[in-house]
């Protein structure tokens, strides 16, 4: 029952926050609920290492079905852990982003968002999953529009409209699978397809195409990314961090479960049309790696630049999935971890810069390193990780991709990987160099006032920076756990 308790803890916190509507209580209760949920998820990691957790209430097809494998437990722990750091940082940051009266609603939405994302991961019945997917989409859009500005309203409307369209494609795929298997559970669909796939080849292929399109749209895979820069760029900075680091990953992980738990590797990797679909996913991911970086290079707004960087990083994940190999899937799952901690840090650091300087324009950040030394050092850690410099988790991620590429014999992807890394450097390093070695727009004879955030505001970002380095140097147990998780679904 651990996954249910985790979700109920977060939902209960959201309900209490919504009723009480006191800012201080909202902040403390949301964080307390996350701390408790994280402790329970750590226990779930230990339990699932021995055997999966299963809860079944009712009968097919409308039953309540939860199944937690090691990989599911890993994703839940990642979502809650990174969300905890984001909420911790938001305690001081959110007051500058939204109206005071809306703060309790913000924390209620964040608790609902993380609870629904965890549900998307652990539920096995597609009826349950689809309801949670839709709930997460509306909660995520709510964290964008809560800023109550015209640009946020437009971005939120675009986001929810395209997200619903993506959900519609996924729903069509699920309906097709239901009609040919008489099951809505992932395990039930797998069992049915194991015996009757040859009688329903075209239907399963069509279902996979619909689900792939829907997932690509909901997770902003280029060129279906058009909602992401506006949503991430205009949202409150903690919302931007959660959207980029967590929300997109839940839908991608659901796609992985459909590929390898519902359809199954035996069918997926031995059917020409499905292999072609995977190949197109891999190629599209490779194109996204370059296109997202090129768009990032063209930005003058720091948050939009980081948002377009996310388009490139989503391309990495889809490229790994599209390889159709264990090492490729491992690289993709590991990159979900890498992107979650690194992009959360970058958005939070950028939010601190905007909060203290009231400036979002990259060209006006000259000399900022002398006024916000710690913040810019933290931003540098995130930048070096995204580029793939050794001693940072981003390097490990790109190393695993290189190994996966060689294993899949798609050697041309090594060139894409190298070019993407160079482009990452081309838009992250100028910010760092301008901040530490560039000149400020103010005259030299004017005193340089420190703009550094208080240390209590920087602590969660410092912890994320520590994780980026610690996971790079001491991540062996995490790697082993991910491998074990892949074995549980492959």
Q: Give the helix tally.
A: 19
Widest beta sheet: strand line-up: 1-2
> Could you say which structural class the secondary elements and strand pairing correspond to?
mainly alpha
Using the CA coordinates, give the radius of gyration.
Answer: 22 Å
Mean pLDDT: 89
Oligomer: single chain
Number of strands: 2
Uncertain parts:
443-447
DSSP helix fraction: over 70%
Q: Based on CA inertia axes, which overall geometry fits?
A: globular
Task: Tell me about this structure.
With 490 residues, this protein is an all-alpha fold. The chain has a domain at 271-490. Helices cover 78% and strands 2% of the residues. It has helices at residues 2-20, 23-48, 70-93, 103-122, 126-145, 150-181, 186-196, 201-218, 228-234, 237-268, 272-297, 302-322, 326-357, 368-371, 373-387, 393-408, 412-437, 455-474, 476-489; strands spanning 53-57, 64-68. The protein has a two-stranded antiparallel ribbon with strand order 1-2. Strand 1 and strand 2 form a beta hairpin. Helix 11 packs antiparallel against helix 12. The radius of gyration is 22 Å and the shape is globular. The two termini are 24 Å apart.
Care to give the gist of this entry?
The chain has 19 helices and two strands. By secondary structure, it is an all-alpha fold.
Keywords:
490 residues; mainly alpha; two-stranded antiparallel ribbon; 19 helices; 2 strands
């Amino acid at each position: 029952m651990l996954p249910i308790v985790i979700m109920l803890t977060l939902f209960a916190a959201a309900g209490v926050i919504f009723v009480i509507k006191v800012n201080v209580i909202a902040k403390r209760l949301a964080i307390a609920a996350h701390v408790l949920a994280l402790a329970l998820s750590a226990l779930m990691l230990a339990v699932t290492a021995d055997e999966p957790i299963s809860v079944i209430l009712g009968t097919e097809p409308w039953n309540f079905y939860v199944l937690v494998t090691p990989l599911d437990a890993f994703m839940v722990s990642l979502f809650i852990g990174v969300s905890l750091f984001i909420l911790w940082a938001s305690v001081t940051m959110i007051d500058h982003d939204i109206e005071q009266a809306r703060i309790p609603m913000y924390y209620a939405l964040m608790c609902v968002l993380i609870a629904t994302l965890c549900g998307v991961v652990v539920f096995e019945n597609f009826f349950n999953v689809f309801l949670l997917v839709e709930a997460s989409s509306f909660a995520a859009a709510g964290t964008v529009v809560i800023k109550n500005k015209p640009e946020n309203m437009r971005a939120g409307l675009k986001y929810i409209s395209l997200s619903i369209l993506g959900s519609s494609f996924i729903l069509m795929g699920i309906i097709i699978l239901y009609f040919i298997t008489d099951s809505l559970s992932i395990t039930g669909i797998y069992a049915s397809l194991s015996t009757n796939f040859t009688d329903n080849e075209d239907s399963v292929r069509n279902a996979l195409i619909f689900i792939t399109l829907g997932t690509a749209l909901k997770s902003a895979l280029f060129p279906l990314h058009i909602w992401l820069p506006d949503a991430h760029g205009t949202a409150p900075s903690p919302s931007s961090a959660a959207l980029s680091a967590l929300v997109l990953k839940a839908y991608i992980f659901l796609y992985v479960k459909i590929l390898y738990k519902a359809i199954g590797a035996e069918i997926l990797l031995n059917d020409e049309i499905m292999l072609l679909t995977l190949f197109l996913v891999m190629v599209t991911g490779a194109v996204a790696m370059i296109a997202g970086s090129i768009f990032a290079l063209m930005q003058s707004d720091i948050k939009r630049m980081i948002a377009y960087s996310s388009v490139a990083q989503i391309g990495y994940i889809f490229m790994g999935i599209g390889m159709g190999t264990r090492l490729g899937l491992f690289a993709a799952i590991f990159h979900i971890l890498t992107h979650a901690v690194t992009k959360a840090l970058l958005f939070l650091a950028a939010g601190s810069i905007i909060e203290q300087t009231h400036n979002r324009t990259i060209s006006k950040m000259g000399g900022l390193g002398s006024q916000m030394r710690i913040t810019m050092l933290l931003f540098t850690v995130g930048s070096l990780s995204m580029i793939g410099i050794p001693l940072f988790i981003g390097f490990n991620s790109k190393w695993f991709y290189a190994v996966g590429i060689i294993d899949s014999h798609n050697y041309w992807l090594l060139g894409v990987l190298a070019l993407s890394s160079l482009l990452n450097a081309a838009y992250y390093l100028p910010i760092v160099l301008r901040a530490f070695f560039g000149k400020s727009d103010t005259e030299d004879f004017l005193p340089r006032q420190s703009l550094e955030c208080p240390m209590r505001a920087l602590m969660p970002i410092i912890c994320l920076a520590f994780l980026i380095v610690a996971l790079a140097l001491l991540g062996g147990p995490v790697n082993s756990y991910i491998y074990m998780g892949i074995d549980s679904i492959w």
